[in-house]
Structures are given as structure tokens and as C-alpha cells.
């Protein structure tokens, strides 16, 4: 089966919501995933990608946050929950999914920030991820800026 951009977009959408729920409720990861399968039409989402993002962020949280934290103007704990979930997810993607161009990762996170985040969250998320991508994917970013 060919994975479509739409299926990946849906996976990111659900992964961001699952990460938000995990942060807010502190529930068990497997319980959150089961709830998402029960409550959402996951048939149009790339389920493997959803799992990779959701569990990948949770299992590598310290490493993920330490990658974007230097670019913040406030502590991670002071971020709104949507921006925090998006920065975690997109940073994990930048670190672990070299098959996805950094611009796609950033654009998808910005689109979700526009949809779910507070006012101007998309600008904040874009700025932090742009700097994080320059750190994590220096060669790709430099080649793109030539």
C-alpha cells in the first residue's frame, strides 16, 4: 500500500492530539492509542506513522525536548499544551524521520498550530522548528538555502 500525504497528515493530526492528551491526563500510552482507535476514523491515517510519532516522542522525551529547548524564550513547562505537543512531535520527526524533508515537517506542524493552537502559535512553532531544523539537519538546510 502506498502511503499518501493525506494519510500522513491525518497521522500527525491524531499524534498531536494523542500527545496533548498524554501530557494533560498522563494516561497510559496504550490506553490513549486504544481510545483513539475507538473514537476516530483511523482508517484514513497512516497508523504506523501515528504510532512512530506518538510512542517515539514519549520514549525519547528528554532527548526531543533538549533539541528544541535552547531556542525557547521560556521554560518548556510554560508553553501552551498544543505548541508543546507540536514541538515535541515535529522535533522527533526531524531527528528520526530522515525520509521526510525538514520543510514538510515544519509546514505540517505550522498547519496544525494554525488549526489548534492559540493566536500566533504558528509563528512561534515555525521559528523554533526552523532553528531546530538548522541544528538537526544542518546539511539539508544548508543545501536548501544555497
Automatic annotation (TrEMBL):
It holds the Pfam family NusB. Keywords: RNA-binding, Transcription, Transcription antitermination, Transcription regulation. Residues 9-132 form the NusB/RsmB/TIM44 domain. Signal peptide: none annotated. Coiled coil: none annotated. It comes from the Bacteria. InterPro entries: NusB-like_sf, NusB_fam, NusB_RsmB_TIM44. PANTHER family: ANTITERMINATION NUSB DOMAIN-CONTAINING PROTEIN (PTHR11078:SF3), N UTILIZATION SUBSTANCE PROTEIN B-RELATED (PTHR11078). Belongs to the NusB family. Involved in transcription antitermination. Required for transcription of ribosomal RNA (rRNA) genes. Binds specifically to the boxA antiterminator sequence of the ribosomal RNA (rrn) operons. This is Transcription antitermination protein NusB. It comes from Biformimicrobium ophioploci. The lineage of its organism: Bacteria, Pseudomonadati, Pseudomonadota, Gammaproteobacteria, Cellvibrionales.
Amino acid at each position: 500500500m502506498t502511503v499518501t500525504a493525506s494519510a500522513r497528515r491525518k497521522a500527525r493530526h491524531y499524534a498531536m492530539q494523542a500527545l496533548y492528551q498524554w501530557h494533560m491526563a498522563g494516561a497510559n500510552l496504550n490506553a490513549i492509542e486504544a481510545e483513539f482507535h475507538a473514537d476516530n476514523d483511523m482508517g484514513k491515517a497512516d497508523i504506523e506513522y501515528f504510532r512512530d510519532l506518538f510512542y517515539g516522542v514519549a520514549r525519547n522525551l528528554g532527548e526531543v525536548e533538549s533539541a528544541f529547548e535552547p531556542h525557547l524564550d521560556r521554560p518548556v513547562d510554560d508553553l501552551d499544551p498544543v505548541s508543546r505537543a507540536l514541538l515535541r512531535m515535529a522535533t522527533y520527526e526531524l531527528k528520526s524521520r530522515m525520509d521526510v524533508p525538514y520543510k514538510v515537517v515544519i509546514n505540517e506542524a505550522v498547519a496544525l498550530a494554525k488549526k489548534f493552537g492559540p493566536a500566533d502559535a504558528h509563528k512561534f512553532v515555525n521559528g523554533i522548528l526552523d532553528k531546530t531544523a538548522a541544528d538537526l539537519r544542518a546539511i539539508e538546510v544548508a543545501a536548501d538555502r544555497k
